[in-house]
Design goal:
By secondary structure, this protein is an alpha/beta fold. The chain has a single domain, classed as Rossmann fold, CATH 3.40.50.1820. Helix 4 crosses helix 5.
């Protein structure tokens, strides 16, 4: 399971590194279509989620990305500020966020503590460590260790529950990176019959959940 998950991640990181897709093309949706904002996980650019972006755009949705996040190595608070600035700059409303891993934490931070969070209708958080990961404390960089369950910023975010009702937390039956799971009290929690932290992004089951949420479900 670990090997397959890392193989998926490595393949799509390489693909993302060589992608030249123009995010502006994705932002052009059909009239009346939904507005979607993609937020990648830590050490991922938005292009890591490109297959999902193309799927959503093919259904007519206007798909936005925040290039200013880069590889998403800054703090959760800083990431939320960058997303808030993007939403305000483009005057987006009724937004459905689709986020992977740390991106889900940024989405919750935005919805919980920023005025621009009111622009978000719903956040679909995929494989997000809302309670942190016990493995994070052993990782080599500060940005990765900030996802440990004892991190002060993560604990403060966990205590903020008002936004939880606007979150759909989606996770597989097994996630090698988040042994404690991704269930979030007060949110709609959806467990899929899919294993892995990364491979879930390409699963048919996830696409069905995301499509239903984007369509207003």
């Amino acid at each position: 399971m670990w090997a397959l998950d890392y193989l998926y991640a490595a393949r799509h990181q390489v693909r993302a590194a060589f992608s030249r897709d123009d995010p502006g093309m994705l932002a052009a949706g059909r009239p009346g279509a939904s507005t979607v904002l993609l937020l990648p996980g830590i050490l991922e650019t938005w292009r890591f989620m490109l297959p999902l972006a193309r799927h959503l755009h093919a259904r007519g949705n206007a798909v936005h990305v925040v290039a200013a996040l880069g590889r998403n190595g800054s703090t959760i608070g800083d990431g939320a500020d960058r997303v808030a600035a993007y939403l305000a700059e483009h005057d987006l409303t009724g937004v459905t966020i689709v986020a992977h891993s740390k991106g889900g934490l940024i989405a919750k931070q935005l919805m919980a503590s920023s005025l621009e969070g009111a622009r978000v209708r719903l956040a679909v958080a995929v494989s997000t460590p809302f309670a942190g990961s016990v493995y994070a404390r052993y990782l080599p960089t500060r940005s990765l260790r900030s996802l440990a369950p004892t991190d002060a910023a993560l604990l403060r975010l966990a205590a903020e529950s008002a936004a939880n009702e606007r979150i759909v937390s989606v996770f597989g039956w097994f996630d090698p990176h988040i042994p404690g799971g991704s269930a979030l009290a007060g949110a709609r929690n959806v467990e899929l019959p899919v294993g892995g932290h990364f491979r879930i992004l390409a699963s048919r089951e996830l696409l069905e959940v995301v499509d239903a949420c984007v369509d207003g479900g």
